[in-house]
Design brief:
heterodimer; A: 120 residues; alpha+beta; Alpha-Beta Plaits; 2 helices; 28% helix; elongated; B: alpha/beta
C-alpha cells in the first residue's frame, strides 16, 4: 500500500509506513501526549507505549479511492483536557502531512488507548 | 507584601485574564507554531477567562481553595495547545498550595516551579522555545530570588522580567520563529498573564491595549501562514503583497473622518491577509490584493501615501518552488556515496536487502561459517568512501575483527556489538545521521537490548550441548544463544522456540526464513504464530539465508 503522486517528471510513491512515521512523529510533539499505543486490545489495563521506530504500529493509514484516512492510537497525560489534546493532534497531523508530503488527509481519527498518571 | 491570600490571588487572576483578553489579537497574529492557524490568542483567552470566572465564583481567603478553583476552571475551558499547557501550569500550582491558606514568597516561587514540573510531565517531546520554556525559565528565576527575598511583589517582578527575557530568546530555540521573525505566541500570552498579575498586586491599571508591536512582526507572521497554504503558484488568488502608509491630512480627514475599524472594513473588499495599525498621524496597511491600485486609491482618501511597496507573490512563489520559470537541467554532482556509513555482516540475499532497506550502507557476506576478517571489513568501509562509520558484526564471533577494523581504519569508527541479524536491524533503525559516532553507538546499543533472538539450524553431528541431547541432522532451537531443544521435526522445534521467546509483552514477532524453507511453510508457521500470539504483530521476510531455516526476533 502506498500513495502515488504524479507529476511531469514521473511518479512518486510514498509508502504508508512513511505516512505513519511522519504522523506519529508529529503527534508526539503535541502537548498532552505521552506516547503512541498499539492498535491491539489493551492487555491487563496497561497500554504499552511504543518506541520511536514503531510509531507506525500505532498509526493506521487507510486509502479509500482518492481519500486518505488516518487512525491514531494514543496515550495521554492524566489531568489534561482529553478532547482538546485529541483535537490538537488531529490538526497537527493534518498540517504536518500536508506540509511535508503535500497530502490532503480526509480524516484523522483519534483513539485514546490509555491515560498515564504522573506524580511530580 | 509578605503573604498572599486567596482573595488577592483571585484579583491577580482576573487582571491577568483581562490583560490577555486585551491583547489576544496580537497573540493570534504571532501564531506560527505548532500550526500557523492564528488562534493561539483566542484559545488562551478562552481558557484563561474560563479559569478566571471559576476563580471569581469561588474566591475565598484560603489560597489553596482559590487556586483549586482556577485549576478546575482552566481544565474545563482549556482550548488549544497553549490553553492545555496553561491549565497544566496552574494545575501544578494549585496542587502545590492545596493545603496552604496564605503563601510566603518562597511558597509562591515554589508553586510556579511545581506548575512547570507538572506541565513538562504531560509531554513526550517538549519543544523548547515555546510557552513551556518561558514558564520554566521564569519559575527558576523566582526560586532563586525567593531564596533571599521575602517580598512577593519583588519575586513576581523578577519572574516577569525573566519571562520577558526568555520570550525574547524563543527564536533562538525554535527555528520557525526565527525564520518568520516573531517570538512565540503562547509565551507572549503567558507574559501578558504575568503582567496582569503584577499590576493587580501593585494595584495599578494597565493600558487598555499595548500597541508595542511592529507592523513587520505581523506581516512576516501573516506571510508565513499564507505561504504554507500554497502548493502551487496557480493557487494564489491575491497576487500582490501591498504595503503602504497613509499620513493623514487634516483637510482630507475633515471630509473622511478616519476610523480604524471602518477603514479596515473598506479595504477588506480588495483582498485578504489584511493588517491595519494606526495612531493619530499614520495608518500602516498590509494587504494581499489583486488590485493594488484600488487599495492605494482607497488610502489616498485620508491623506498622503508614504513608503509604498508592492511585490508580485506569484513570481516570488514560483522562484521558491521552482516551477515554470526554471527550466534548467539539473546535473548531478558526484558525492561520496555514504559519508556516514553503517557496515554490517549477514548471510543471505534477502537479509542483505532487508538490512540495506533500513539503512545499512554495505552488507558483508559472512556469518556463522565464514567470518569476515578484519581486512574484509576494512575493505568494505573503504569501498564506500565513508568519513564516519558504525560497524555491526551481527555475530559474536565477528565482534573482535570488527573492533580491530575500527582501530585501523583511520576514520571515525565505532562498533555496535550486535550478535544477530535482528539485533542489527533494531540497532540500524535507531541510527541518527545527525548524531556523533559515539552517541549513535550508545543509542543503537540501547535499541537492541530488548530484542530477543531465536535461531533454528541443524546439527552436523551427534553431541550434547547445554544439557540437550542432539542427533545428527536434528533441528536445533537456539534461544538467545542457548540451545533449548533438538528434534527431527522443524515444525515442533519452531513452535517450542516461539513458546520460549514470546511472552505477553511481545509486540512484534519477525520471522526471517531461509533458503531451506518454502514460502508456503513459512506462511503456515506465521499463521500459527499469529493465531497463538494474537497480541503481537507478525512480520515475515524471505531472508534466503543458508543453514538457518528460521531466524526470529521478538520485541
Amino acid at each position: 500500500m502506498s500513495i502515488e503522486l504524479k507529476n511531469e517528471f514521473g511518479q512518486i510513491d510514498i509508502s504508508n509506513d512513511v505516512v505513519g512515521q511522519i504522523a506519529g512523529g508529529a503527534a508526539i510533539e503535541c502537548y498532552g501526549i505521552v506516547g503512541m499505543a498499539t492498535k491491539h486490545q489493551i492487555r491487563d489495563g496497561l497500554t504499552d507505549i511504543l518506541r520511536k521506530e514503531n510509531f507506525s504500529k500505532g498509526v493506521l493509514v487507510r486509502q479509500n479511492g482518492e481519500d486518505l484516512h488516518i487512525d491514531m492510537y494514543i496515550v495521554i497525560s492524566y489531568g489534561t483536557k482529553v478532547s482538546e489534546v485529541a483535537y490538537q493532534v488531529q490538526s497537527k497531523v493534518k498540517y504536518t502531512l500536508n506540509k511535508t508530503l503535500g497530502l490532503a488527509v480526509k480524516s484523522v481519527n483519534i483513539y485514546v488507548q490509555g491515560v498515564r498518571v504522573t506524580n511530580p | 507584601m509578605k503573604s498572599l491570600d486567596g482573595i488577592q490571588f483571585a484579583e491577580m487572576v482576573k487582571m491577568g485574564a483581562h490583560h490577555l483578553f486585551q491583547n489576544a489579537d496580537y497573540v493570534d497574529a504571532l501564531n506560527v507554531f505548532p500550526v500557523p492557524d492564528g488562534d493561539t490568542g483566542t484559545n488562551m483567552n478562552l481558557s484563561m477567562s474560563s479559569g478566571s470566572k471559576e476563580t471569581e465564583a469561588h474566591a475565598v481567603a484560603h489560597i489553596g481553595k482559590t487556586a483549586q478553583a482556577l485549576s478546575k476552571g482552566l481544565l474545563m475551558g482549556a482550548r488549544g495547545n497553549s490553553g492545555v499547557i496553561l491549565s497544566q501550569l496552574f494545575r501544578g500550582f494549585g496542587k502545590d498550595v492545596e493545603t496552604k491558606s496564605t503563601l510566603s514568597a518562597k511558597d509562591f516561587a515554589h508553586a510556579f516551579q511545581h506548575g512547570v514540573d507538572m506541565a513538562y510531565k504531560a509531554v513526550m517531546k517538549p519543544v523548547e522555545g515555546t510557552i513551556l520554556t518561558v514558564a520554566k525559565d521564569s519559575a527558576k528565576k523566582a526560586i532563586e530570588v525567593a531564596e533571599h527575598e521575602d517580598n512577593i511583589i519583588v519575586v513576581m517582578e523578577e519572574l516577569l522580567k525573566e519571562a520577558k527575557a526568555s520570550l525574547e530568546r524563543t527564536p533562538d530555540l525554535l527555528p520557525v520563529l526565527k525564520e518568520v521573525g516573531v517570538v512565540d505566541s503562547g509565551g507572549q500570552g503567558l507574559v501578558y498573564v504575568y503582567e496582569g498579575f503584577i499590576a493587580a498586586m501593585k494595584g495599578e491599571k494597565l493600558p487598555e491595549k499595548t500597541s508595542s508591536y511592529s507592523m513587520d512582526d505581523l506581516v512576516s507572521a501573516e506571510h508565513h501562514k499564507k505561504i504554507q497554504g500554497f502548493m502551487d503558484t496557480a493557487d494564489i488568488e491575491f497576487g500582490y503583497c501591498t504595503e503602504f502608509m497613509v499620513k493623514f491630512m487634516p483637510e482630507k480627514v475633515a471630509e473622511n473622518p478616519f476610523n480604524e475599524h471602518d477603514f479596515r472594513e473598506g479595504l477588506s473588499q480588495f483582498g485578504d491577509s489584511l493588517l491595519v495599525i494606526s495612531d493619530d498621524e499614520i495608518a500602516k496597511v498590509h494587504i494581499h490584493s489583486e488590485q493594488p491600485g484600488n487599495c492605494l486609491g482607497y488610502g489616498q482618501k485620508f491623506g498622503d501615501l508614504i513608503k509604498i511597496k508592492i511585490d508580485n507573490m506569484r513570481q516570488q512563489h514560483s522562484e521558491i518552488v521552482g516551477d515554470d520559470y526554471k527550466k534548467d537541467v539539473l546535473t548531478s554532482v558526484p558525492v561520496k556515496k555514504h559519508p556516514y556509513a553503517i557496515v554490517t555482516v549477514a548471510m543471505g540475499e534477502g537479509i542483505s536487502d532487508l538490512l540495506k532497506s533500513v539503512g545499512a550502507s554495505a552488507v558483508i557476506v559472512g556469518g556463522q561459517t565464514m567470518n569476515p576478517s578484519t581486512e574484509d571489513i576494512v575493505k568494505a568501509i573503504e569501498s564506500i568512501g565513508a568519513e564516519k562509520v558504525l560497524i555491526l558484526p551481527n555475530n559474536k564471533n565477528i565482534i573482535m575483527a570488527a573492533q580491530q577494523a575500527a582501530e585501523v581504519i583511520g576514520i571515525e569508527a565505532a562498533v555496535v556489538p550486535t550478535k544477530s541479524v535482528p539485533e542489527g536491524l533494531a540497532a540500524i533503525l535507531a541510527f541518527n545521521p545527525e548524531a556523533t559516532v559515539e552517541d549513535n553507538k550508545t543509542t543503537m546499543t540501547e535499541a537492541y537490548a530488548h530484542v530477543k533472538t531465536g535461531q533454528i539450524t541443524f546439527a552436523v553431528r551427534d553431541t550434547s550441548i547445554d544439557g540437550v541431547e542432539i542427533q545428527k541432522d536434528d533441528y536445533m532451537a537456539i534461544s538467545q544463544g542457548k540451545i533449548i531443544l533438538a528434534s527431527p521435526s522443524l515444525v515442533d522445534v519452531s513452535k517450542s522456540l516461539f513458546h520460549d521467546l514470546v511472552d505477553e509483552d511481545a509486540e512484534i514477532i519477525t520471522i526471517i526464513y531461509g533458503e531451506d524453507v518454502t514460502e508456503t511453510e513459512a506462511k503456515e508457521l506465521a499463521a500459527f504464530v499469529e493465531e497463538k500470539y494474537s497480541h503481537a504483530d507478525v512480520e515475515v521476510y524471505n531472508g534466503k539465508q543458508p543453514l538457518y531455516p528460521y531466524i526470529i526476533s521478538v520485541e
